[in-house]
Design brief:
The complex is a heterodimer.
Chain A lengths: L25 E3 L6 H10 L4 H14 L24 E3 L14 H9 L4 H8 L2 E6 L2 E5 L2 H7 L2 E4 H7 L1 H7 L10 H9 L4 E5 L9 E6 L10 E6 L4 E9 L7 E3 L2 E6 L4 E9 L11 E11 L5 E8 L4 E4 L2 E4 L5 E10 L4 E10 L5 E10 L4 E10 L7 E10 L5 E10 L5 E10 L2 H9 L4 H17 L4 H15 L5
Parallel strand pairs in A: 3-7, 6-8, 7-9, 8-11, 9-12, 10-13, 11-13, 12-14, 13-15, 13-16, 14-17, 15-18, 16-18, 17-19, 18-20, 19-21, 20-22, 21-23
Antiparallel strand pairs in A: 1-2, 3-4, 5-6
Helix pairs in contact in A: 1-2, 2-8, 6-7, 10-11
Chain B lengths: L3 E10 L2 E11 L4 E5 L6 H9 L5 E9 L2 E2 L5 H7 L1 E4 L6 E5 H15 L7 H14 L10 E2 L5 H15 L3 E5 L7 H13 L6 E5 L13 E6 L2 E6 L1 H10 L1 H9 L1
The chains are: A alpha/beta, B alpha/beta.
Chain lengths: 482, 252
Amino acid sequence: MSTDPNDIESLVNRRYEHGFVTDIAADSLPPGLDEDVVRAISAKKNEPEFMLEWRLKAYRHWLTMQEPEWAHVHYPPIDYQEISYFSAPISDEDRPQSLDEVDPKLLETYDKLGIPLHERARLAGVAVDAVFDSVSVATTFKERLHEAGVIFCPFSEAVTDHPELVQKYLSSVVPYRDNFFATLNSAVFSDGSFVYVPKGVRCPMELSTYFRINAANTGQFERTLIIADEGSHVSYLEGCTAPMRDENQLHAAVVELVALKDAEIKYSTVQNWYPGDENGKGGIYNFVTKRGDCRGDNSKISWTQVETGSAITWKYPSCVLRGNNSVGEFYSVAVANNMQQADTGTKMIHIGRNSTSTIVSKGISAGRAQNAYRGLVRVMPQAQGARNHTQCDSLLIGKECGAHTFPYMEVKNQSAKIEHEATTSKISADQLFYCRQRGISEEDAVNMIVNGFCKEVFKELPMEFAVEAQALLNVSLEGAVG
Amino acid sequence: MNMLEIKNLKAGIGDTEILTGLSLSVKPGEVHAIMGPNGSGKSTLAQVIAGHEDYEVRDGTVEFLGKNLLELEPEERAREGIFLGFQYPVEIPGVNNAYLLKAAVNAKRKHAGLGEIDAFEFLKIARETMKMLDMDPSFLNRGVNEGFSGGEKKRNEILQMAILEPRLAILDETDSGLDIDALKAVANGINALRDPERSIVLVTHYQRLLDYVEPDFVHVLSQGKIARSGDKSLALQLEEKGYDWVREAASA
């Protein structure tokens, strides 16, 4: 009764549940970055020569680059010499062949996250390539995938076992010169996932990876490459949580998707990295480059993301719509609470004739957070009949947060049809009182309103993931109103 | 035991005192009408009983079935059985009407130590109730009050009341802005819920609702307290003589 109903920001507080550090001895490189570090990483991975050369080219180019400053985020300068660029669980040498052989501590970690790996794998028929720190530890359902001819393995394994595919597609969507963070990733990335779906194959299950950042002070540089050959179909799920810690952690991942003629890739992300405490201390810096190339005619790439974590998010999953009649989609929910800063959105580059794209972005800001949508729709002169529909909605909780929209449109073909819709709304004290008068607690009311706001995006997620995403959103906004 | 027992209630916002020592007793099964001119404190009374945090209670007591209502949060009051039909029901875009109602029903059931009902059971109850109120089933699938007409919003309040089966229902100007058909439908809904175990407080500006829902008692509010109480004939008298008559009586 004593709280001011306008004081909506005071409910924004719940401690991060996934904050813990698993005590597994890590085999790490000392902090610092030079050519020797790049060579050491490549050597640790037993990489072929072409990889090392590519990494070194990237490193040398990175030295000439400036960290970008255009995003609507603020953070103290990152000292790249204070970061350790490689860390692997000690059990690296003896990679477990089945879940029974997995370090029980690791399984415990997953349990704490509410993700019992074996349960998930068994019940849901999901193949899980779990990335723990920088080395993949458990890979399941390989046989079923093998029968279908699908390659789903740690990136480092693909480099060894399928060098011709790696050499052909790596860097073909995100060149090593692309941007500061992608270039850094190219030089020092430690591992990630690799997927190849052969011609005409519909991948028999959802592919899923859980990322975790664990060893202290270790930047995490993931590299994911997914190739859908002609007429194939694959759905890939990525979810993350991280333990609580004090220092800021840098994460600069790169994801490249290639869809050839008539192929379809659906990439879904639920991101829950430690956002920092209520003063913004200790959260993850997430600078990610995600790009899909609809290389063939009638191909389709769909990004769906639910972003609740990280102190800073800098992320623009994009589609290059090269093929005629190709389709790009971006469905996003981005939550920023407390001192979180998010600058996220997408780029749709229309090159092919009659290429179409859809953007649905839902931004939720609470506490003192700043949430920016930045989206580019570019129609090239040859993209006759291109179409785009963008819907960009912001929901504000409380009085101290901000929502910003930066839409960019560059249309160089007169036949293009581009639509942009945007709304901004606020959870009002009246709405909350109405729900409470019906017996619904304030937090449940906020969850209900937020989930209602996001449902267009949630329905794009695979069922199991949608439930998880909804729960995650509820946790992220618990205490958001008061 | 009285359903509602208000003694010497003083409440207001900031420096303004709106209720200036109001007392009221409501027994189970009774229907009370609270009337009065604009600014007399009718809606404030409804909001204070529901627990709206903008209103500060400065003196007096409010008991509901013997419990001190003032120390309960709004949602606890609702779960105990208090329902407020809002004068201006708020829109909640994107939230399904059925979803909100089911959450409300289950919050109440949980509070009473009962198991939650599932979507099928809920829909069965909701459809039966809507039939009784002569409402279109499509109502359930719309956003809460989203794009509803004034009449639809008020009917939706009655629907919620019927499904939640409160012990004490306070209907704040549920009749305002309704055409005659909607008024009759709303009145039928209220009458259908009259029950020896349930009490209803109708806050209204005009007497016309009382042609359809016959109150046991009528109270006239003036300057934040009850100036006059009587049976339904008081409402008719009021209609005839206007509120000045009460104001004069109050200040006399």
